[in-house]
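Ticket #4471: structure export looks truncated?
Reporter: QA, pipeline team
Priority: medium

Steps to reproduce: submit the single chain below to the structure queue and open the exported record.
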Amino acid sequence: MLSLIVPSHRDESLERKLESLTQQTLPLSEFEVILVMLEKERSQLRSLTRSWPLTLRTVVIPDEVANGKHMVALKRNWGAKVATSDLYMLTDDDVFHTPDSLKTFVDFFADGFRGIATCDLRFESEVVFRLGAKNTPLSNLKWVQFSTSFIVIDKATYAQVGTFKDDFKGRGADIDYGYRAHKLGIPMKRLAGDYAVHEGSPRNDFAVGKTSGYGAYLASREHGSDYALALGVHPVSLTLKSLAFKLGLSRLFTTNYYKDYERGYLQGALEARNESSKR
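Actual output as written to the record:
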């Protein structure tokens, strides 16, 4: 049995996700789908009014409980509380599944693996160009690549690492979780032969970069210099990046496509540093 825990608020995306789950080669009776949402979001999810051939459960969080919380982390934690299986798939409502996706992970853990596993996550804009590409071989997953857009974790490992930090400020609660798992020596693997599809295209978004940099810097205050260096928010890294952007040399740190994101990331990290220095 597999429990999919899905923070939900995008109706059209959720409908596409549920459609992809009805096409799984894993028997539909062998997994449950737990949709976690706020009270105010429930009425917006018209796809819930459809009849689906899935074991579908909804968890509704009171709006007042969510005040000041990291929304995705909060929803993941609430979903895990009610999961009935010993294997969790943490995945977003805008990530869609290839037909063998669920069976691939269930079989991998059935062979005795305990820890965290994921696969390639490809944006829709990339898939058409990569269908003929060689599949990624089984490999170790680095904690800096940890993303709860799509991971599978067994119940015992989840209990060992603990819940997601729902008081996390900014973006990056998933990377924080990956780092905590890494420090505990939890095995983390990227599976061969499968991929999930993320809606849309990679985002070069200043605002997203800013909240990511802000969260990364604050987390580095807890985790130390190796975390800060890996995420580019170490004082030396911030000094070099600031100088590069000032001199028009941002290409030393990023491609032109992601320049706005990286500029936002830098600004968010600097703002978090300034706020921390005033406390």
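Status: closed, not a bug. The export was complete when the record was re-opened. Leaving a note from the reviewer for reference: The two ends are 48 Å apart (CA to CA).
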